[in-house]
Model the fold of this input.
Amino acid sequence: MLVRSDLNVPLEGGRIADDTRIRASLPTLRLLLERGVEEATVCSHLGRPKGQDPAFSMRPVEEQLRELLPDERLRVLENTRFNPGETTNDPAFAQELADLNDLFVQDAFGSVHRAHASTVGVTRFLPAYAGLLLEKELTELGKLLGDVERPFVLISGGAKVEDKLGVLRNLGGKADSVLVGGKMAEEIRGNNPLPFDVVLPTDVVAASAFAEDAETKVTPYDALPDGWLGLDIGPQTREDFAARIDEARTIFWNGPMGVFEWPRFAEGTTAVAEAVASSDAYSVVGGADSARALTELGLDDDVSWLSTGGGAALEFLEGKELPGVAAIPDS
Ligand code: ADP
Ligand code: MG
Done:
């Protein structure tokens, strides 16, 4: 059995900084082993290596996986992106992956928005099935695309504005309120490209420069001095956003409210994370940095679903077809 997992974990100095994705891949592997698979060959990409760069070797990931799930029937292939045929979806590489396997299980939700050899190509050579994580992600995120319990509150922040606007275009129209922070707020302020109103911050933590030790002050958004940047939502906005989140019955949050990596600009993200976590609404959090913020606060178990998907989750919520899902018959 060939299993495409999403083992694309963040690395820091050659070590795994966060093994959430490895853990999320375990239920499918466990099930296959319990059902008596002869051999499960797991493959994944890791980072964006240029050629066969040992800094992106899968070996530390394999070690961690083996520690969590010791079973000699597991085999972990080297980084699929070490082969140039991965991203070009080269049939020769897809066939090489398929070789010696009878079935293909796609469980890498975080990669199904890419038409690569290990996500789409292999399905030409092997019967393909969805794994448990892929199925769960599509089910949970899919709830946001259907009828939702109201009020439906959408919270959007972070820095990748274009990706996020796509989700807002698709989902924002049916939300009861759309709360916007982060760099998103700066982009939308004064020039909202969306066909509906959004709730922008009334106050911000302003910084004299984009630096951790910059001079800061809390100001109304309208009074942001020339050349200063709003690097977090202010205390009034935190309260307003938390109050709206408290009333919600459905929540989707993607994108931090400020530069949360620097503690002085993390309070907005913390306030939103705490409000989402303490709500008993159906709550979904997507995006790698949002997930990290939530996990660092120890609140990752307090939301209904924390997506491992990053870009794939956003594309799915934008309403786009995911090539790696479309390639699975009956999916
Ligand atoms: P996600 O990974 O959750 O989808 P993004 O990658 O879009 O979110 O954005 C996360 C990044 O946005 C963080 O590194 C954070 O520092 C940055 N960010 C948040 N608010 C601001 C801001 N006001 N100005 C600049 N960068 C910001
Ligand atoms: Mg990010």
Observations:
- The chain has a mean pLDDT of 96.
- Residues 132-145 form the longest helix (14 residues).
- Residues 157-160, 182-183, 230-231, 254-256, 258-259, 261, 287-290 surround adenosine-5'-diphosphate (ligand 1) (CB under 6 Å).
